[in-house]
Amino acid sequence: MISKREAARRHFLDQAGLADARRAPLAGDASTRAYERLFPLSGPSMIFMDQPPALETQPCPPRASAAEREALGYNAMARLAAGRVEAFVACAAWLRGQGLSAPAVIVSDSAAGFAVLEDLGDDLYATRIAAGGAEAPLYDNAADVLLRIHAVRPPAVLNAEGVSWPLLTYDDLALRTASELLPEWLPRLDPRLSFSDQAIADWRAVWAPITARGEAGASVFCHRDFHAENLLWLPRRRGAARTGLLDFQDALCAHPAWDLSMLLHDARRDVSPELEEAVLARYLGAGLDLDRERFMADFHALGALNVVRILGLFARLVARDAKPRYRAFMPRLWGYLDRCLQEPAPVGLRAWLDANVPPEARA
């Protein structure tokens, strides 16, 4: 007997005229989504996205107070989309409107949590580089994608294809929620660690001015998961459109340094200091109206915040969700954090780590 969810999948595909398509599961990620590649009887392959709405807590209502967001849970506090299909649809349409290669949405049912998407292929940056492909052209093009996105002020609400989705700000509460993951989950992963009330208070004091800067600088569409396993190489397209974009449904209005940190502090592959420097030089030399010194200070500070966020997330995935493979990525993240702690460094962060997380616990 098939499950209720499988029955719903089949009904959706039948209504979309795809009941006879061959279905091939695709590898999953850290989310509650599942993907399949569809092979219709005729025409190109497609991607079937399945996001059961009941598996996630509620997303953030646009005008919710901090207390209301805290009551709703982590997704609302962090301003995550909670897997909502309408978020993907609206973000994809906005990105395509900028001349970029987000998948076209062929058909969707937001309430049921289903969508059929254009298939952009399998040529991920990460896969291509691992097979010996040159890094520099790919990362140059990724920088050009961000320059295209950052050249325009995004709307407060994304409207497309019959759906609307608010582009909320990566605000102080969402950034503080990101910073809190490490002190909450690292001791659960490593029993050698224990943070006193004073240590927690000092940790929050380190991040307070940084989260304030992050909210104040929120001015661009932020993909939020912009790294080599969510970027595809599409050589037949031109310019910035040669980079295909995936997994952007959690997008916010954020500081432009955030997606650069996601790209250059990639948890799943090494990005060398030289490549980081080259990408930053390309970005900063493109003529955007930026104060270079201030931007670099923000890049280091928000980059450090992003890295500790991912360290906390991976500690949670290992300790709570029994996904041990994420532990292997953590030494690389500690290395990126060391890079962020070079000048101009977030004030007090190195001293806090030296006092509370010994070198043997950063592995």
Written account of the structure:
- 45% of the residues lie in helices and 12% in strands.
- With 363 residues, it is α+β, with helices and mostly antiparallel strands.
- The chain has a single domain, classed as Aminoglycoside phosphotransferase (APH), C-terminal lobe (Aminoglycoside 3'-phosphotransferase, Chain: A, domain 2, Alpha-Beta Complex), CATH 3.90.1200.10.
- The chain has a 5-stranded antiparallel beta sheet, covered by helices on one side. The protein has a two-stranded antiparallel sheet with strand order 6-7. A two-stranded antiparallel ribbon has the order 8-11.
- Strand 1 and strand 2 form a beta hairpin.
- Helix 6 packs parallel to helix 10 and helix 8 (197-216) packs across helix 11 (292-319).
- The longest helix has 28 residues, at 292-319.
- The chain is globular, with a radius of gyration of 20 Å.
- The mean pLDDT is 94.
Index terms:
single chain; 363 residues; Aminoglycoside 3'-phosphotransferase, Chain: A, domain 2; five-stranded antiparallel beta sheet; two-stranded antiparallel sheet; globular
In N-to-C order, the SSE pattern is HEEEHHHEEHHEEHHEEEEHHHHH
The fraction of residues in strands falls at 5-15%
Q: Which percent range fits the helix content? A: 40-55%
Reported by name, the CATH topology is Aminoglycoside 3'-phosphotransferase, Chain: A, domain 2
State Rg: 20 Å
Structural class: alpha+beta
The separation of the N and C termini measures: 46 Å
Q: With helices defined by DSSP (H or I, 4 residues minimum), what is the helix count?
A: 13
Shape: globular
Major beta-sheet overview: 5 strands, antiparallel
| Number of domain modules | 1
CATH architectural name = Alpha-Beta Complex
